[in-house]
Amino acid sequence: MTEQADLGDQRPLIGREPCCHDGVLTEEPVKVGEAHTAAGVGEDVYCCRQHLPLYHPIEGTEHTP
Prior knowledge:
Layout: E1 17-18, E2 25-26, E3 30-35, E4 43-47
Antiparallel strand pairs: 1-2, 3-4
């Protein structure tokens, strides 16, 4: 039997990403880039719907309701 970890206050953050423009968490993140480092470890960059016109979404990552 597998036990689930108690996520407490972190549960509302699952599935949300901070907007790269203003840092506000968005429930409908759109991937607009990837940040790479010399170590090879990178991360995806997201923005919210409001700021999407400022960026170009990466094909296949835009959320459609």
